[in-house]
């Protein structure tokens, strides 16, 4: 294959990826209620449970931790529902089997879905960051805010794969309650609603094995300079590999059932 041909193929793949991303974004924003939960709930949690606690909201470190935790929750919710519920919903549509048989292959569609989820996850951060900046003493600085955004996306990666696994393994009727059942207990046990310092000893120990706790510590470390350990990185990488493997298995299982 010549260099020119290879370059043409790459451009074609990029064009198809952007086309899929544009279609998925438009499909989502046409039903605005689909975005409300991801945009509003973390911001409301910050406004109702953090702002009234002046000892937290008025302390720069505690406020930064609280904003970081709820920012991570916003991204996790976006990943779980965008990929878990969104993929399951797409699979229920008659158009989905046709698209998956096209010669372009699965990569452009998957890449487009990743771009869509990344866009909505960044959007979900805006209300939380704005309320934190206006209503609390959190002031990590521009460099740490940027590092925190990167850390939030990295910490959300296991849940991206978890969402894909749910979406390809279950129908829409099962995916929606399963996403809710997984998200909220993991968020609480991971210290996204209450800081781990308030946990009893047994819960503090158990949460150290969860991807939400490892992700929370990583994000807090990015925004405050302390919190994460090597163990958190190991836990996060381990969960990412496990859930990525589960997502690949779910995709191949679904493909084998529907197209053999």
UniProtKB/TrEMBL annotation:
Pfam families according to UniProt: ABC2_membrane
GO molecular function, one term: ABC-type transporter activity
Subcellular location: Membrane
Protein topology in the membrane: Multi-pass membrane protein
Residue ranges occupied by any ABC-2 type transporter transmembrane domain in the UniProt entry: 22-218
Keyword Endoplasmic reticulum annotated: no
InterPro entries: ABC2_TM, ABC_2_transport, Nod_factor_ABC_transporter
Highest taxon listed in the record's lineage: Bacteria
Membrane-spanning parts: 31-50, 70-89, 110-134, 146-168, 175-194, 233-251
Ranges in coiled-coil conformation: none
Gene Ontology CC: one annotated term: ATP-binding cassette (ABC) transporter complex
UniProt key word Lyase: no
GO biological process, one term: response to antibiotic
Keyword annotations from UniProtKB, A to Z: Antibiotic resistance, Membrane, Transmembrane, Transmembrane helix
Protein name as it appears in the record: ABC transporter
Organism: Cellulomonas bogoriensis 69B4 = DSM 16987
């Amino acid at each position: 294959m010549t260099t020119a041909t290879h370059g043409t193929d790459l451009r074609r793949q990029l064009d198809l990826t952007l086309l899929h991303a544009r279609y998925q974004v438009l499909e989502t924003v046409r039903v605005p209620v689909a975005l409300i939960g991801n945009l509003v709930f973390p911001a409301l949690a910050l406004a109702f449970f953090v702002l009234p606690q002046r000892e937290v909201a008025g302390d720069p470190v505690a406020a930064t931790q609280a904003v970081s935790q709820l920012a991570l929750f916003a991204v996790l919710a976006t990943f779980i529902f965008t990929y878990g519920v969104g993929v399951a919903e797409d699979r229920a549509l008659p158009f989905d089997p046709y698209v998956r048989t096209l010669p372009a292959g699965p990569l452009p569609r998957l890449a487009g879905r990743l771009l869509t989820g990344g866009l909505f996850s960044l959007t979900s951060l805006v209300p939380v960051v704005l309320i934190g900046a206006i209503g609390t003493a959190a002031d990590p600085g521009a460099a740490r805010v940027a590092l925190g955004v990167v850390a939030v996306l990295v910490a959300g990666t296991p849940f991206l794969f978890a969402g894909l696994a749910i979406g390809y393994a279950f129908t829409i009727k099962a995916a929606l309650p399963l996403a809710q059942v997984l998200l909220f207990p993991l968020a609480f046990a991971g210290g996204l609603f209450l800081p781990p310092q308030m946990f009893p000893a047994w819960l503090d120990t158990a949460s150290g094995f969860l991807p939400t706790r490892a992700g929370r510590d990583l994000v807090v470390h990015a925004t405050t300079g302390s919190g994460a350990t090597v163990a958190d990185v190991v836990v996060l990488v381990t969960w990412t590999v496990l859930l990525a493997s589960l997502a690949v298995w779910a995709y191949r299982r679904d493909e084998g059932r529907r197209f053999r």
